[in-house]
Specification:
Blueprint lengths: L5 E11 L3 E2 L2 E2 H11 L5 E5 L2 E2 L7 E2 L10 E8 L1 H14 L4 E9 L19
Antiparallel strand pairs: 1-7, 1-8, 2-3, 4-7, 5-6
Length: about 120
Amino acid sequence: MTRLTGRALRVTIFIGENDTWHHRPLYTEIVHRARAAGIAGASVFRGIEGFGASSLIHTSRLLSLSEDLPVAVVIVDTEERVRAFLPTLDALVTEGLVILDDCEVIRYVGREPKQGETGKEGKR
C-alpha cells in the first residue's frame, strides 16, 4: 500500500497526443516507465485546445485542421523520486514542456491489490 502525505513534487509534461516513442504513444511510455520506477502515481489528461512553441493552435473543434491535441502527463511523488525520474523524461521528451511544482499532498493511500490481481489491469 502506497502512502504519501506532506511535501511533494509535481512534474507536468506537456506533449502532443500524436507524439510517439517507438511506435507507441509517448504518454503511454511515460506512464509505464513511471510505474516501473516506483513513482506513486501518474495521470494523463487530454486537452481540448492549446498551442506551444510553434504557436499553431490545436483544437478539438469541428472543422479544425489540427488533430494533435495537447496532452498533459502529471506525476506526483517525493522530490527524491521525481528528480531521479527526470533523466528518463529527458531521454523521452524531445518536443514539449516539462515543469516542476512544489506541492503538498493531503492524503494519498493506494489500495491493496485483491488476491490474484497483479496491478496491471489498468486500475489506479
